[in-house]
Amino acid sequence: MAYVVAENCIRCKYTDCVAVCPVDCFREGENFLVIDPDECIDCALCVPECPAAAIYAEQDLPEDQKRFTALNVELAKKWKPIVEKKGAPADADEWLNVKDKLHLLQR
To answer: What angle do CA 90, 67, 41 make, to 5 degrees?
Structure first.
């Protein structure tokens, strides 16, 4: 079972998680990160590093976030790996606690 990046990452896209990932399983989109489930080794190192608290073990995803499992799978096949920490978007903190951001996801 892999870890899943959920909705709170949208428009925040902090990359602290990328810096601690031992297998480079993160993929980067314009305003969101996903985890490639085929690469994730379930180490959980990324979970405490995420300032947005957007990373969950698949079995721990809140009910309203379960669709993000399939979304991580889909987008991991399309997006390129990110292997180094980058600066967060300038307005990331403003988006941190905003709910219902799925419509803002840029694919």
So the answer is: 80
Domain boundaries, given as residue ranges, for the chain: 3-81
Q: Is the pTM of this model over 0.85?
A: yes
Residue with tokens 């941190």: 96
- Sign of the C-alpha dihedral, residues 34, 9, 107, 27? negative
Two structure tokens written together for 11? 């428009």
What is the rounded CA–CA span in Å between residue 101 and residue 99?
A: 6
Q: Give me the tens of pLDDT residue by residue for the chain, a chain 107 residues long.
A: 699 999 999 999 999 999 999 999 999 999 999 999 999 999 999 999 999 999 999 999 999 999 999 999 999 999 999 999 999 999 999 999 999 999 999 99
Distances (CA, A) of 15 to 7, 63, 66, 72: 15, 25, 22, 16
Q: What is the CATH number of domain 3-81?
A: 3.30.70.20
